Fold:
Amino acid sequence: MPAKDSTPATGPAAAVAAGGAGGASRPVPPTPKGRLGSIEAAVHLGFAVLLVASVVRYVMRHSPSDNVLVLGLAAAACLLYAVVALLSLRDRHSAPWMVALVAVWAVLVVAAPSFAWCSFALFFLCRSALRGAASYVLAGGITLATAAGLFRLGNGTDLAMLLGPVAVGVMLTLIYDRIQHDAEEQRRLHAEVTQAQGQLAASERRAGTIAERERVSREIHDTVTQGLASSLLLLEAAGRGWPSGAAQQDLHQATSLLRTNLAETRSLVHELASPGLESTPLPEALLLAARQYLPEATLVVTGAPRQVSPDIRHALLRVVQSAASNTALHAAASVAALTVGFLPDAVTLDIYDDGAGFDPAAAAPPSTAGGYGLRAMRQRVEQLGGIFSIQSAPGEGTIVAAQLPLEGA
Structure:
């Protein structure tokens, strides 16, 4: 072939030489197999454009007798390229076809260095179609063939045409491998973050389940358990004094309390609300809740009453119910008084009785026999950002106090 064929010595050779050194595994295709990604489509289109341009350039510069072999090799390379690209797209084994493509292209680029521009597409195809060492061996073959063709183009006297592509190829290989390593590191970190997010979501679900169980246990304690305990106390008193008038009054009160407790149980199934108390002003609702267990309870309101959020209202109702039930069961009090205070930024609740009192520090821990009331009241208040306290001593009565911040204060 005449030596008039000219091709830049650095561009295509530098690109294909990027596969001639290094040992990293091939990069993962940017799109899933079975779907042609934008990068693959650009590479294949680039190969077609460069091949056509190289054929036109060669035909215009050489005689028809020189064209037959070169055009035949170009047609074979084009066919093999299409086969390898199709097999790679379908994730099928394409190593033998890639070897044949590199062999045909090596002969072609040595015979006609104009086709060295196609090294761009062949390099990317080799790295995406093959894995491991095979991709580097074949890419190295592409690099050597490009260097040989360009060295031949210089009539075998220009050493830069031989060494330049190899040197540039080594540098680009290092850059390529570093980019690939960073991409793999990003994928690894992404997988770790995804796994951590999954573990966090599972932990939050477990924590939510535990919190919901505690919430339901508080609701059952403050409604069903307290009501049943008070009813049992009244029925036992009625049984001891029957058929006196006091016993009949105790029986009537126990019946009324059981009906209320039944309504509370049904309410617990439906949104855990307090039936009949939602529309009642807060002070009156608290007094009604206390009188379910302490019929003689009184109420004092300080400040200007105003609306509070449903969560605060619900918490105060449950605190009153639990405290009043404890007073009826254990205190033997003659006086029970509620004080509700509306401050500019909070609402306060004090429940006082002059009963037997107890030592809060020596209170029994929760068990199957009871002991959940104080803990449940404290949890309700503190979960809403409030302050809960108990002041009591044996023989000196008890004060249960709660302060809850108002929303928007």
